[in-house]
Amino acid sequence: MSTEQVKNEIRRFLKAEDKLALCLSGKWGVGKTHTWDTLLTAAFKDATVRPPRYAYVSLFGLETLSDVRRSVFENTVEAAAFSEKERLEATFSSVSERLAQLSSKWRAGIGMIRGIPVVADYGGLVEAGFLDVRNQIVCFDDLERMSDSLDLKDVLGLITFLKEKKNCKVVLLLNSEALEEQNAENFRVQLEKVIDINLTFAPTASEAVAIAVPDRTTLLTQMVADYAAKLEITNIRTIFKLLRICGRLEEVLEGYDERIIKQTFHSACLFGFAIYQPTEAPPIDAILKHRPYADFFGDEGERTPEEIQHSELLKRYEFLTADGLDLVVFDCIRSGFYDEVSLRREADALTGRLELKDQDAAFSKVWDIYHGSFDDNADAFATELKQSIRDNAAAISPANLSASIATLKKLGHGDGLDDLIKDYVDSRDDGKDFWVGDPVSPRFNIEDPDVIAAFAAKAGTFADDRTLKGVATAIVRDRGWSEDTLEFIDKHSADDFYAAMKAAKDEELRLVVYGLTYFRNIGNADERMKSISAKAVSALQRIGQESAINRLRVEKFSVVVPQA
Questions:
Q1: What residue ranges are annotated as transmembrane (predicted)?
Q2: Which helix (H) or strand (E) holds 174?
């Protein structure tokens, strides 16, 4: 049964003259009470409710049937209450007024309580007031949360009494799944005897979102509605919490890029779902450690059906991995304290990354002029490319700079390139490693001689803090080297090689020895490589001659140790 069908049945129930009992059940938080209240208020305002008197009673906290009867009387309101902007709640004064009316009526009729003040013996008067409960609608909520001292059969018996003897229509709102085993069995047995209309309220995610977020005219409401639907959240209480959380985040991050706001909303909705509905959402640990491409490398291992389901949900939700901003958002939701300093710090960092992303996109767009047609537009392309290099230097890799400079030269637009390269170098505040480059990284595949010279000159302005041990280790780790690396190593003597090997221990020792002897296995080794290899062998032979155990240690590196 769709939610619209359920609503239509409730509307018919409210208009009906017959004295009926209606049960509206559903999971916790799906909007049973909200939907009932909304339809009830609309019907009272349209004057279509029969009969036009109403009482709402939560069974939570009530210990006896006498408490229930008293609560029915205390919470009864007339139709006029629904004409107010907010529902009129039962108060001491409103109950006293009704008691005064009853006292006046009883004095006139039988003189039973002549001379007794309205508030004297309040409990007894209110209990007696239940006798006046008739011709009205009574709504009982939280049946599954009632006290153990209150028997379910007694409550259902009271519903029957109200309907058959008091000319009332009765509504029962409950989460039937939350009833204890014995109560659930009793409820099922007696349901057909007591309830005339049995409805199950089970909205889809889109229906729940429509209930919780009817107005989607702001970025906040649009995004929360969209994300809640994607996460298939059917609990409107959770959606209300997400609206509040995202509203607070929006307040803290006012003025930031809309993409940052959307990311915080996106992550907050997922985190909130996991925190408030842990039995239905992916576990929070799985979210924070999520690696969307791990299965590409075959390291996912055996997964349970539930884990696969959660992984698929995260994939549909397009959640990749939690960054610094996401982790701060999670901490805010979990603690309830919104650390504005940390949120803005991470938002600032993300702003920088987004700016680089935008610059990279702008640079790529210029190259679309080159790749996108066979038009004779070299001049326009060259002009745009030069300007883009100046504007977007922070996002342009060394390899892309080199390729761009080489292309401009081939097109005959070499004028001003020295200044262009200088502007690129001067605009970046990278450390020495950037200018020296990583020989195995495609981002550093520079071939243009002018770019190479400019990078070398920039690298030369930094103090050389490399060590022989560190460079040797890097060769093995990266399986690559540059001419600058060879030059640095060859500057060292065999004594330096000896000292580095003697100082290294454990795994570092293995890396240093392999790094310094790496070029012995190069078939077309140049003179510098041969020089490095000779120094390494000499140092190892010297170590091997120091003791019998060192001789054995050195020989395992395929180095022959001559007799001392």
A1: none
A2: strand 169-174
Enclosing H/E stretch for 23: strand 21-25
Rounded-to-integer distance, Cα 462 and Cα 431, Å: 8
Are the C-beta atoms of residues 528 and 487 closer than 8 Å to each other? yes
Confidence band for 187, pLDDT divided at 50, 70 and 90: confident
pLDDT tens per residue across span 491-526:
999 999 999 999 999 999 999 999 999 999 888 889
Instruction: Round the CA-based radius of gyration of the chain to a whole number and report it.
Output: 39
| Coil vs helix vs strand at 55 | strand
Query: How far is 305 from 295, CA to CA, in rounded Å?
Result: 15
Q: What is the pLDDT of residues 525-551, one digit of tens each?
A: 899 999 999 999 999 999 999 999 999
**Phi, psi at 515, each rounded to 5°:** -65, -45
Residues 490 and 232: their CA atoms lie apart, in Å, by: 64
CA 247/CA 260 separation, integer angstroms? 14
**pTM for the whole thing?**
0.72
Model confidence at 120, pLDDT cuts 50, 70, 90, reads: very low
Do the beta carbons of residue 359 and residue 370 sit within 8 Å? no
CA-wise closest residue to 396 among 426, 370, 361, 349: 361
Closest Cα to residue 420, out of 395, 388, 380, 375?
Answer: 388
Closest alpha carbon to 370 in 332, 398, 408? 408
